Amino acid sequence: MANDIDYYWEESGYYWDNIPETVDPNDYIQRMVKADSKPGDARKRAYSNLRYAIKKGWIRYASTPHPKRHVLTESFYRWLLKKYQTIQGLPQHHIRSVAPGIPIPLGLGTPSCYSSEPLPLDPLVIQRLEQENRRLKEQNMILEEQLNKAHEEIRDLQERDAQRRRNCGRRTPTEKINS
Predict the structure, then answer these.
(1) What is the pTM of this model?
(2) Residue 161: helix, strand or coil by DSSP?
(3) What is the 3 state secondary structure string of 94-144?
(4) Which tops the pLDDT comparison, 148 or 46?
(5) 124 and 161 fall within a common domain
(6) pLDDT (0 to 100) of residue 77
(7) What is the pLDDT of residue 134?
(8) Residues 147 and 83 in one domain
(9) Measuring CA to CA, which residue among 111, 48, 44, 123 is closest to residue 82?
(10) Domain shared by 90 and 172, yes or no
(11) Do 51 and 122 belong to one domain?
(12) Are residues 100 and 163 located together in one domain of the fold?
């Protein structure tokens, strides 16, 4: 097991080399209809939302080697999870990670106004996030110290340069005595 993220992918049945790049959005219309909670014609609204997202560029069509009308999975699933939070049947491999080895569901990245209650986090994920937070704080302190030292060096050099410019053309008292 190389790292935890590889284990997660192997456990879920998805591997880096067999993740589909494109998907036909029409295959997801029925799921979108089921996830729609608004009254009225949900199928018409799903098609309309899909066309609008493509028109706005939120969902991108795949290039020519892929089948016609297929869209890129990255943009499609991101839009789908934002628009329909309760949608079922999405592949589990669409997980984003805050740091290597710390996967979190895409739904956690959506603003709280989209979902009624926050998604629960696994205690292991919380522990890893806390470790990553501590590591980043330590790294931040080191970088701040380096930045402060660099600022001090710059101030010293500026003071020396200002002193040199003030003394430009003047001989120091020791030079006057020696001449």
Answers:
(1) 0.42
(2) helix
(3) CEEEEECCEEEEHHHHCCCCCCCCCCCCCHHHHHHHHHHHHHHHHHHHHHH
(4) 148
(5) no
(6) 79
(7) 94
(8) no
(9) 111
(10) no
(11) yes
(12) no
More confident residue, 160 or 115: 160
Region 32-38 average pLDDT? 84
Tell me, yes or no, whether 111 and 65 share the same domain. Answer: yes
Type of residue found at 103: P
Distances 173 to 28, 129, 163, 167, 177 between C-alpha atoms, Å: 87, 64, 15, 11, 6
Which position has the higher pLDDT, 165 or 73? 165
Average pLDDT over residues 155-172: 84
Domain that holds residue 44: 4-128
Scan for tokens 């014609």, then name that residue.
Answer: 41
Domain count, the chain: 2
Q: Give the type of residue at 160.
A: R
Per-residue pLDDT at 97: 46
- Residue (of 34, 50, 39, 125) closest to 86 by Cα position: 34
118 φ, ψ (degrees, to nearest 5):
-70, 150
Alpha-helical runs (H) found in 40-115: 42-56, 73-83
Query: What is d(CA 6, CA 97) in angstroms, rounded to the nearest whole number?
Result: 12
Q: What is the per-residue pLDDT across 61-86, written as a single tens digit (0 to 9) for each?
A: 887 777 788 887 777 877 887 788 77
